[in-house]
Write a structure and sequence with these properties.
Strand content of chain A: 15-25%
Number of helices of chain B: 7
Largest interface: A-B, 22 and 27 residues
Largest sheet of chain A: 6 strands, mixed, barrel
Distance between the termini of chain A: 28 Å
Structural class of chain B: alpha/beta
Shape of chain B: globular
Number of strands of chain A: 12
Strand order of the largest sheet of chain A: 4-5-10-7-9-8
Structural class of chain A: alpha+beta
Number of strands of chain B: 10
Order of helices and strands of chain A: HHEEEHEEHEHEHEEEHEHEHHHHH
Strand order of the largest sheet of chain B: 6-7-8-3-9-10
Oligomer: heterodimer
Strand content of chain B: 25-35%
Chain lengths: 408, 231
């Protein structure tokens, strides 16, 4: 018997009991839709995280000051003012595995342009900062070494700041007041989006480090930086660069066995890789939970197929009497089961994809439907049909034609 | 005439638990091509078991069964299915048509398992339906047909493969007397066209249509006689 004929017979059998076929399929539909939607939500989350990792820049090590004790009170990490511009410069030149190092300071304050004003983060950084963050300007020019050396009052605006102060007008060349000090806008930075912590990275103004140190932040000594951001030459060299930095700073800060280090290094990519991993694990877990419903649906298929075999015992007997072989009967019932699950799978994929789109539209969650997850879901639904259809089909094929013909 | 069916000392023993029941106790007969044979007997006489053996639905415990020159003993289940498909046509008491399936597709069913293409199937099915006088009823579902018409569909299905023998098991059991007569006349006509028919019945007036009557009792043949009377 050819395959098309088997398919026709199976389709006719399913059409005969439309309601029952639909209800049976529903289990698979819900299961597959859940798997697709969950995978979409999960991979959407891990996609966002990997985008954010890329937005920070790759192979980044952060050096922040350690804690300090003042009057018996210990501050947390970053509390001390122990890192200097010289440390940053030295890391950049003396550590062979380091590509760039940039000292940064951070302040916040009001930025005023004409009758508009906006409160934002003001970052002071050497020109290397933009190499490290892989963050180009989209109009105007970048901060140069001359700006840095001369502590010139120029600034780069993040997209959010530019929009809030200037709307659609071009800010390059205008004067803005940062903490009441006039700065010339020399350029606009490319849009970066959210940081892994959920902050808007475009809501920031950048000025040369020395300019910031002199005008915008207060510190006990000159040349203090609040953090040094370092880029290793390659991914493989991150760990090496980290230990080079530690050695260099230990030396520079005269850290020995009795003195606690006054700085901490953090490997950002590593932290984010962990975050990405956990997002992936989450999406896998969601998929696994959803696939339980697929198994439940499969059991439903098996149940209905068993009922169907019993109901159609006589039909099986007739078919056997007029020449159907065991394999013909086996194939017929298997085809019915697989057809049920595959149809259910297709509908489920459509529903799941629709659901995922709905979730991202109405809840604002990022979702991503991959061809891979669709393929897996489809093959899985077919496998459920084969697995749960086999036993009932085997039972049908094993019937004795004489008993089957006599069955009432 | 050539021998279509040859049974030699056929025994069929059923084992139920530790009890044995011998349904056929050494049955032998030959049937030639073109014969119309009625197998008679009370229930439990072994006639149905004999019919199952003849129909290759059951295998004898011992004895030799030649069907159209082929020794059926020791043949695998798949080959038996092929033999049922190609050499035998079945007509049952309860018609046994597939519900919700047009008549013509019921008739086509054996041809599907024979592996014929759809066009050839339809052609042969229409010929068989015309043979039993059902032209024009091709697309009716069994539920839309009378009992007699349904049995005609079943006969067309039995005919469609040009089998060596048609086996009919109480073909009139579910029909009223006038319809029974119709069906028996159809069998007679088909037999006159050269088709071999073996029919199980317990009704004497139905058996009277056959040219030969074999009577069973307690698993043995007690009489095997030619009937001269034809209605």
């Amino acid at each position: 018997m050819d395959f098309i004929q088997t398919l026709k017979i199976a389709l006719r059998a399913l059409r005969t009991n439309k309601m029952r076929s639909f209800l049976t399929m529903l289990g698979i539909i819900i299961g597959i839709a859940a798997v697709i939607a969950m995978m979409a939500v999960g991979s959407g989350a891990s996609y966002v995280i990997s985008q954010q990792i890329a937005s920070i820049g790759s192979n980044i090590i952060l050096v922040i000051p350690g804690s300090t004790t003042s009057g018996g009170l210990r501050t947390g990490s970053g509390g001390a003012q122990t890192l200097s511009s010289d440390d940053a410069r030295s890391i950049g030149t003396d550590c062979p595995s380091v590509a760039y190092a940039a000292g940064t300071v951070r302040a916040s304050g009001q930025i005023i342009s004409g009758n508009m004003n906006w409160s934002s983060v003001i970052m002071g950084g050497t020109p290397e900062l933009f190499e490290i963050r892989e963050w180009p300007v989209v109009s105007g020019r970048a901060i140069t070494q001359q700006d840095e050396d001369g502590a010139i009052k120029v600034c780069l605006l993040g997209q959010t700041v530019a929009e809030n102060l200037f709307g659609s007008a071009d800010p390059v060349g205008s004067i803005v007041r940062i903490k009441k000090i006039p700065f010339t806008v020399i350029g606009i930075l490319e849009r970066k989006g959210q940081s892994p912590q959920g902050q808007d990275q475009d809501d920031a103004v950048f000025v040369p480090l020395r300019t910031a140190q002199r005008n915008l932040v207060r510190s006990q000594r000159t040349g203090i930086v609040s953090a040094i951001i370092v880029k290793a030459k390659s991914e493989e060299l991150i760990d090496k660069a980290e230990s080079e930095i530690q050695m260099l700073l230990n030396q520079r800060h005269r850290i020995n066995a009795t003195k606690e280090p006054d700085f901490t290094t953090r490997n950002l990519s590593e932290i984010l890789a962990v975050a990405e991993q956990s997002a992936k694990a989450m999406s896998l877990l969601l998929g696994a939970v959803a696939s339980i419903s697929l198994i439940v649906g499969g059991i439903g298929i098996m149940n209905i197929m068993l009922v169907s075999v019993t109901e159609r015992t006589r039909e099986i007997g007739i078919r056997m009497a007029i020449g159907a072989k065991k394999n013909d009967i086996l194939l017929q019932f298997m085809t019915e089961a697989v057809l049920l699950t595959m149809l259910g799978g297709l509908i489920g994929i459509a529903l799941g994809a629709g659901g995922a789109t709905g979730v991202s539209r109405f809840l604002g969650w990022p979702t991503m439907i991959s061809i891979q997850s669709i393929t897996i879901a489809f093959l899985f639904s077919a496998a459920v049909g084969i697995f749960f259809g086999f036993y009932p089909a085997k039972k049908a094929a094993g019937l004795n034609p004489i008993d089957a013909l006599r069955y009432e | 005439m050539s021998c279509v069916i040859s049974l030699t000392d056929i025994r069929r023993v059923f084992i139920m638990g530790d009890q044995q029941f011998e349904a056929l106790k050494g049955v032998s007969f030959d049937i030639s091509a073109g014969e119309f044979v009625a197998i008679m007997g009370a229930s439990g006489s072994g006639k149905s078991t004999c019919m199952n053996v003849l129909g290759c639905l059951d295998r004898p415990t011992s004895g030799r069964y030649l069907l159209d020159g082929l020794d059926v003993g020791g043949i695998g289940a798949n080959e038996l299915a092929d033999i049922r498909n190609k050499k035998l046509g079945f007509v049952f008491q309860g018609f046994n048509l597939l519900a919700r399936t047009p008549a013509v597709e019921n008739v086509e069913l054996p041809l599907i398992y024979a592996g014929l293409g759809s066009r050839e199937r339809r052609k042969q099915a229409l010929i068989a339906m015309e043979q039993v006088g059902l032209a024009g009823k091709e697309n009716n579902h069994p539920s839309q047909l009378s009992g007699g018409q349904q049995q005609r569909v079943a006969i067309a299905r039995a005919l469609v493969n040009n089998p060596a023998v048609i086996l009919a098991d109480e073909p009139t059991g579910n029909l009223d007397s006038s319809t029974s007569e119709e069906i028996m006349n159809l069998f007679t006509t088909l037999n006159r066209q050269g088709i071999t028919i073996i029919m199980v019945t317990h009704e004497h007036d139905v058996a009277a249509y056959a040219g030969r009557q074999i009577t069973f009792r307690d698993g043995r043949i007690i009489s095997d006689s030619l009937t001269t009377a034809t209605v």
